[in-house]
Amino acid sequence: MFKPFPQHLNLPVIEKEVLDFWKTHDIFQKSIDSRDANRPFVFFEGPPTANGRPGIHHVIARTMKDFGCRFKTMQGYRVERKAGWDTHGLPVEIEVEKKLGFTRKDQIVEYGVDKFNALCRENVWTYKAVWDDLTARTAYWVDLEHPYITYENNYIESVWWILKEEQTPYKVETNVS
């Protein structure tokens, strides 16, 4: 079952062998499918911005997230982990403004808001391959095939729906004598 321990460790080769084994045998999906669907622990990744390079702080945060998900899996929960991409907002706009050499809002209007938005949608995926590689190499198990993407209408509409709902998450009771 186990290979003999090698005299000289070649960690890059070992890393590739382990990752290939997990991929070939679909281990991540098996860790989900082998658990009871009626006992879910839902995890939606707090999404990184795909137009920025990942840093060591992302590795640390993802390690902690993955640790929590694997722990819940070991407790018998079905832990479906959905990746996400933060694809709009100031970081994206600033990056595109830099590429175009813009320093003022009127330059965007003159260029064309539709054209500017199209460049933002394109630019947001600049480092996706780097993120995907980091995700695999750090063994961060998350579904990259079906991510939620924050510029898609279904995501935006779900946020608006949540904001529209009048729900009180908890009731504060005071007992003053």
Tell me the fraction of residues in β-strands, as a range: 5-15%
The poorly predicted ranges are none
So what's the overall shape? flat
SSE run: HHEHEHHHHEH
Task: Give the proportion of residues in helices.
Answer: 40-55%
Mean pLDDT: 89
The number of helices is 8
**N-to-C span:** 68 Å
Main sheet, how many strands, which sense, barrel? 3 strands, parallel
E-strand count: 3
Biggest sheet, spatial arrangement of strands: 1-2-3
Rg (C-alpha, Å): 22 Å
Structural class: mainly alpha
How would you characterize this protein structure?
The protein has eight helices and three strands. Strands 1-2-3 form a three-stranded parallel sheet, with no helix packed on it. Helix 3 links the parallel strand 1 and strand 2. Helix 4 packs across helix 6. The protein starts with 10 loop residues before the first helix and ends in a 13-residue tail after the last helix.
Brief sketch in words of this structure:
This protein is mainly α and 177 residues long.
Blueprint of the fold:
Elements lengths: L10 H14 L2 H7 L9 E2 L11 H19 L6 E5 L4 H11 L4 H7 L1 H11 L4 H10 L5 E7 L3 H12 L13
Parallel strand pairs: 1-2, 2-3
Helix pairs in contact: 4-6
